[in-house]
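User: Continuing from earlier, I have the next pair ready.

Assistant: Great, send them over.

User: Here they are, in order.

Assistant: Folding the first of the pair now:
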Amino acid sequence: MAEEGKKRSVRRKNPEVNLDTLGLEMGNRPPQALDVEEAVLGALLIEPNCIDEAMDELAPNCFYSEKHRMIFEAMRSLTNEHVVLDLLSVSQKLKSLGNLEAVGGTVALVQLSQKVGAAAHIEYYIKILKQKCIQRELITASYQILRSSYDESINVDDLIDQAQSKVLDAVQNNVKKDVQEIGKVINDALDDIQKLQNSSGLSGVPSGFASLDKITQGWQASDLIILAARPSVGKTAFVLNLARNAAVDFNMPVAFFSLEMPSIQLAKRMMVSETRLSGDKFRGGEKIADWEWEQLDIQLKRLVKAPIYIDDTPSLPVMEFRSKVKKLVKQKGVRLVVVDYLQLMQGPSELRGMREQEVAAISRTLKATAKEMNVPIIALSQLSRQSENRQGSNRRPQLSDLRESGSIEQDADMVIFIHRYDYQGLSENPDDIGRTQIIIAKHRNGAIADIDMKFRADEVRFVDLSDSLVNQADMMGVESAMNSDMPAYPDGGYGSSSEFSNSGFDSGFDSGFDGGGFA
């Protein structure tokens, strides 16, 4: 038993994976192509035209043979020093590094120079070496995951996070995106512009708020949008409105990752917004009348059928988030992703305890995921107390108020603040209750602006009041019916108050608009 425990401790102290030994245990040889390695190194010795492409695409770990790896490292050092590669320079570099005898001396270099394939095939040879390298990296990652899975001291969530990171690193570290000629990029851009000119409406996912869409043209694919405010200002309420509008009014699938609230609470908030009944009735504080139950069935039909997918996993690891988004985009065709909220996500396990670096890694992953999956991601974020410590109108949120990491501001394509006058105590006028500014403080691909809205806490919805900023006749955005400042029809539609009062439901249904606010 003591000897077995000693072996286990030795294994833990030596985390390196020996692919040769592992391959023998499994009855297989590690993926390799020694003849191709020799052909590439030989070409580098006598074909200067091959050097730039090989140095850009290959790394030392792309070579399985330790001798070949040493030779390539010497060649790369010479290239960085702007020294021409030939038998003499490479042999001298290996000698200075103390590796000449280890690779077989100058004789080995001469033999390599005689094993050159056609220089025109160098691109194909490089592709083979990268494929073998990825296979080896995946084997190494799999073995490390297997070994960690037997270690009961590792938390399961950390284990999943590490496993996803290892597999992703194995692939990404060896895959590079090709450069593109500007002519092709411009032609693609012109095609995109022509498509937008021929289409009506917005180029992105509609928010349902006409004045907001006028500025953004909808949430654009691959953008990371940060929506920030102090606690209890209405971040979740606003982003629920955005998700509802995209899914219900425009039938665009939305993924909602709620790290703060359980899914049933989110559903209740959306039901309050849709029906405009008192929030107390959904919490059991007030009884729902029989006729109101009938209206609930009618008014919630569209919401029930809406393509909204909610994930309420608490403390969601960022790598798990990434894999879930990929699955949702592929299987459900998701067009918009919402995260509530960024600071509650878990970053890479190796950065735990270094909060600023962890948040920076989370924001980078969110941006990378948006770009890779070509969908907009709206991530909620907390603001620091700095804005509350400022005096008067200086309480208006600023980019420097973003909490815990400056990387959030850097990674975001758009930063939006929610600024409530009554919350900040900037006005004692009763008419200012719920008065809100949606502040676009950063907009990488467009204008910054302030948009006036009103937050109706009892209905958990925002109403667009910026008609003066936008000519309604020239409006490109489409206003969501839910965002109009009109009461609801009993049949689930929206109309004027006079039309509503004529329906015969005015006295009973209006009573449902009082009290029970959310933020």
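And the other member of the pair:
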Amino acid sequence: MTRPPQSQIDGASLAIMQKRFEGVTRKMANTLLRTARSGVINPARDFSCVIVTADCELLGAADSYPIHVTGGADMMARAMKEMHPDLKPGDAFLHNSPYHGNSHAADHTILVPVFDDGGIHRFTVLAKAHQADCGNSLPTTYMGKARDVYEEGALIFPAVRIQSDFKDVQDIINMCMMRIRVPKQWRGDYLATVGAARIGEREIERMGAELGWSALVAHGRQWFDVSERQMIKVISSMAPGRARCTCTHDPVPGTPEGGVPANADVTVDVANGRIIVDLTDNIDCLPLGLNLSHACARTAAIVGVFNSLPQTVPPNAGSMRRIEVRLRENCVVGIPRHPVSTSVATTNLGDRVTNAVQRALAEIDPAAGMAEGGAAIPPAAGVISGRDPRNGHLFVNEVILAAGGGPGTPTQDGWLSLFCMGNAGMPFYDSVEIDEMLHPMLVETRKLDPDSEGAGMFRGAPGILTEYRPQGCAFELGFVSDGTVNPALGTRGGGEARPARQYLVADDGEVTPLATAEQIVVRADQLVVSYSNGGGGYGDPAPRQRAADVYRVALREDHSIDDAMTANLRNNERAFLA
């Protein structure tokens, strides 16, 4: 369908208006960060705020997790419209269904349609936040071994109306309060999320009154067109070609023996200005929580592309016209159907898809791509639960003390606090003091794990050693980790990272190894020891001369330290300085 001609907005005005929209999402985020109750939202910042058009096209998501919204916000908004053709001002919808565009059940999303003065639906704002508890059958939001959504246990809300005429639908609130283990905490987080969405609604209404609704709609269309042209330009600068890469998730009971491979077949079609990611050649869905939701499979591939571009392009509906992601139904990294469990969709296997895309693009073009990033959700980022002996209160919360190190890239070393590829370094690592204040725990160690990164011309970021224990009680710990069997791989001659390691150490010296996925009771006399996975290296490390030239460290051909030569280098420098 040909659109009627639109008056062109000049470049400066276009940029300023887009910054106005980004300011709206940042105001939403500030509201959510400052008013939420649970530690996983405040202070760890596991949330995202988004604006989509009335046509369900992603307009802006400043400072958001890519895996939350890049390829799923449009799907959630479309599900809302399809299920509720009678949208009206004052509505708000609770959405966490992974079968209708959401990431996974633990991410509760509030959608609010925004109307002009004439009652025409113009935009939709979304505020999404990971819950401390979502009503799963176990006190964790990561049910890696759940055989289906029924064993997973969470309440599923497929774009359910939770506010009408700006008032809560109390029946839905009551269901959540009865099912979720920490109902008052959830209620506080719900109010914070609704508040963030209503802030977004108010700010867009102000923009419409000031600038005119037709101007806002015209901006969106032109911004998409500009972003698409920018994407075409960047793709035209890349080397054409096709590559296939595989990154493999560690095995858990019920997976193939070596783990779950994520195969990505990537084509850079310079002539037509397109990048195609084919994920159809992967195994079928598994009776586990590792399966990706439709939104996460699509987004994980898109994130791998945007991460790998030689120049930055704004991720929105316009630039994404140039990315084609091919998926199939009943695929572990494709389109699951109810009741397949997708409990861990936002992190583990999704990161492996992103990594496979990045490494494939690196094979095609030495100025693009990345190595493999370190794996997510080690015990240092697990969900702890129990009863606090200091006040008798139940607690459930994900502590985000550490996770994976970033991958080496064609231009720089890995990002130290990446956490995981899909979260893009957006989580705030927990304050040790605040975690100890909120939970009966003592964090004994948090420090970098030396030499755990993959070597390279640009090396990966190292992993992190974290040690913590319960204080005055036992607590339950749940996690679904990765990288202990299949560490982060390098690319274009870069080295792989050191594998992750995790175990319990009792005060009497007894060591209990921890598997990839666990839901265990940690006794008061036990210490949780978690070595997270570093990132892989990019490029041959041989040209990197900083070891000898800057640090006066001599390396052998296998990159081990030559102690005698190192001593000579340093003695010669001391003699020269003397």
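Worth noting for the second one:
The chain has three domains: 11-225, 370-541, 546-577. Residues 11-225 form one domain.
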